[in-house]
Automatic annotation (TrEMBL):
SMART domains: AAA. Keywords: ATP-binding, Nucleotide-binding, Transport. It comes from the Bacteria. The keyword ATP-binding applies. PROSITE patterns: ABC_TRANSPORTER_1, ABC_TRANSPORTER_2. GO terms for molecular function: ATP binding. Residues 2-228 form the ABC transporter domain. Belongs to the ABC transporter superfamily. This is ABC transporter ATP-binding protein. CDD domains: ABC_MJ0796_LolCDE_FtsE (cd03255).
Length: 230
């Protein structure tokens, strides 16, 4: 279980402080598919970055089971992120001079995971292993970035607009893969998106405005990816 208590994160904006997170509290059970929605600038990415240990808050707590990550030093945070988390971003961030297989192995090596065959097959990347990122479509590149993330066998997968650069059909393929792999590997997904349709496949939807959570909705019966449109 992940618990977030009274998170505050501010930035200096001229002479004023801008509160990107203004006392945010929430809890997420293991295995949930959480979608964070909200207008631009509402604090979604900041929340994701603080929860995942990429950024430190001004105050507040982020507690994984009984492990508080706020206040850890850089070395401890790096170990925490390596062991527990993985990331997928809209911009893929593949290494351009490494082929598909080597990009995925980078994730696997971080956890000493030798077998990436299952992940390559699971994401439909068989046959593309020797290609360089520029030889792939956007959807294929995003599948490689998911494969790299999952090769780490994370407990928590953080996604920031993972389908933001993709068309509807490709986005749905990506979401279908993610859901299938989540069922199989049992990790928790926390996803920031502008796409309200994606909320329908989530088990929990968090809505943010101006650095605050304004609504949390639990959904015991999320829809299948094939049932949604946008
Ligand atoms: N490094 C930073 N320095 C200064 N201000 C920042 C920084 N990062 C974020 N902010 C500000 O904090 C607020 C929340 O930003 P954040 O990126 O979390 O919003 P968001 O909801 O993810 O937006 P978007 O949907 O546009 O990505 C915004 O007003 C933003 O300008």
């Amino acid at each position: 279980m992940l618990r977030v208590e009274n998170l505050v994160k501010s930035y200096q904006n001229g002479r004023e402080l801008l509160y990107a997170l203004d006392s945010v509290s929430l809890s997420i059970d293991d295995g949930e598919f959480v979608v964070i929605l909200g207008p631009s600038g509402s604090g979604k990415s900041t929340l994701l970055n603080v929860i995942s240990g990429l950024e430190q808050p001004d105050s507040g707590s982020v507690i994984y089971d009984d492990y508080e990550i706020c206040g850890l030093n850089q070395k401890e945070l790096t170990l925490f992120r390596r062991d527990k988390t993985a990331f997928i971003f809209q911009a893929y961030y593949l290494l351009p001079f490494l082929n598909v297989e080597s990009n995925i192995k980078m994730g696997a090596d971080l956890k000493g995971n030798k077998n990436i065959t299952e992940i390559i097959d699971g994401l439909g990347l068989r046959g593309l292993e020797k290609r360089l990122p520029y030889e792939l479509s956007g959807g294929q590149q995003q599948r490689v970035s998911i494969a790299r993330a999952l090769a780490k066998k994370p407990d928590f997968l953080f996604c920031d607009e993972p389908t933001g650069a993709l068309d509807e059909e490709t986005s749905k393929q990506i979401l279908t893969y993610l859901k299938q792999l989540q069922k199989q590997l049992k990790f928790t997904i926390i996803m920031v998106t502008h796409n309200v349709s994606i909320a329908q496949i989530a088990t929990k939807v968090i809505k943010m405005t101006s650095g605050r959570i304004i609504e949390v909705t639990s959904n015991a019966d999320p829809r299948d990816v094939s049932e949604i449109t946008w």
